[in-house]
Structure formats: structure tokens, C-alpha cells
Amino acid sequence: MLIGAAVVLFIASFLGISGCDLPGNACDAFDSPFSWEVSPLGWGSFLLGIAGAALVVVSRALPQQQQRKVAGLELGQLGVAFTVAAAWTLLMWVFESSSAGAGLILGLIASLALAGAAIAGPLVPALQAPLLSAPRPQTPQPYGMQAGQAGPAGQFGQQGAPGGYGYPGAQQQPYGAQPDPSLGGGQQPFGGQGPAQGQAPAQAQPQGQAAPAHGQAPAADFAPFWFAVPVARPLYGEDGSPAPIAELAPGTWYLAVEQRGQALVAQTQDGRRGVLQDTTGIQRG
């Protein structure tokens, strides 16, 4: 609807802006100017509305982390302001004109539809999704390990070995799901350990000392990873406050920097950190 209204507004800019109420055949010789022959109307109304539509479309085409700001405003917000200003100035031209032509009337209708579509965009969930998907982040590597270098079996971030994280042939498992044995080991569930891990240290401990529970990795074994949420989920402060500090949106990659039980400490693109309590169904990058 937004693009269609902008096209109609562009067509209306080449139609006559003045009508003719003269008696007889006098109107046959009347040549009505169009908007581009009247600079304040063409450049201040029609072009302003078309530019606003272009800014809104570009804003919706970019992922959230690639949004740009002009004078503190996002491109979409600036585009909405342009479309509203164009509709207002065209309304004033129609009121001030003694005989409005087809260009003014059609331009006013198109500018009102354009402003309405631009304003309703952030309010309609179906129109909030970006037209381009977010770029896939680079897989974080363990400290001191190069990309493609084989590391210890089951180590997070291993590249080049079948079954390791990031291996192209391995199917990604949902967060908390069990790996498929047919994939040659596959990706281990988040917080779990591969076979034979955590058992050898337990045998070397004295008999009077309890061994760590099998399947529980110590906090030192956690490595940051990228993830995306399937639906919008709140991010709460690390101080335990009940009010969310941000909202994680689907289609955007976030960095998990710490694990707290079943929850994750996530970092947003603007540097804010908080606790994601609901980690079901997240997709690891």
C-alpha cells in the first residue's frame, strides 16, 4: 500500500492543479499548470511525500542492527514525518485553491493514504518484519584457536571436524534437545557434555570426596555463542528487577555471554546485558 500510494502521488504531480469555472468555451484555452511548475508545491509537497515513502521502505528493508539515524531519528521515523508534512501541505493547498484541479485532489488522497500506511506500519506486527534477513554472525572461536583448526573432541567452536559446532553437515539441534546419533555425534545440548567427559576426573578423586554430577559442565567451560529467538521475548536486568530492560526480536542475532542455570545472560547490539529467562526453542548461530 505504501509503494502504491507513492506511485499515485508521483502520477498526480504531473496533472493540472487548477480547474476552470469560466463560462462558454473559455476553458478550452485554459492551460492548467502542474505541480513541478509551481516550485513550493512540487518540491515542498509531492517530492517530500515521495522521499518519505522511500525512507520508510528502506528502513523496513534493513535489519535492526543496520538501522541508521539522522539527527537522532531513525530512517523510518524521519520518513513518517515527511509523509505527514506532505499530506498537511497538500491539504492547505486544496483549502487555499479557489478551484482545485485533478492533480491537487488526487495528490491529497494519495498523500493521506501514504501517511496512514507509514504511521500504521509500526503498529501492525505483520509490517514490522524486515524485508532482508539479518546477516549470520561469525562463529566465535575458542581462545587461541584459528578457524578450521581441529581442537579437542566435543570442544565448543570446533571447526573442520565432523560433528563439531559449525560443521556444515551437522544438523543444528533445538536448544535443550538431544542430538541425533546418526549424525556422528552431532551438537551436544546446551550445558551438556560429550561422552567420557567429566568421568575421568571423578575416578581420580579420593573416595571420601563426591564427584561432580554427570552432565553438568562447570561455569568455566561456557563459551559465548550467537543465538536467535523464535518469538519476541523480554530481557530482564541482571539485578533481578521484574521490569524488562529490552525485548529480543526474532530475525536478529544476540550474543550469549554467560549461563545461569536454565537462563542465559545475553548482550544486545547496543551493548545492554540482561537475563533471558525463557530459552526454549532458541536457534544457535
From TrEMBL:
Residues 141-159, 168-179, 196-217 have a biased composition (Low complexity). Residues 135-217 are annotated as: Disordered. The chain crosses the membrane at residues 43-63, 75-95, 101-127. Residues 183-195 have a biased composition (Gly residues). Coiled coil: none annotated. Keywords: Membrane, Transmembrane, Transmembrane helix. It comes from the Bacteria. This is Integral membrane protein.
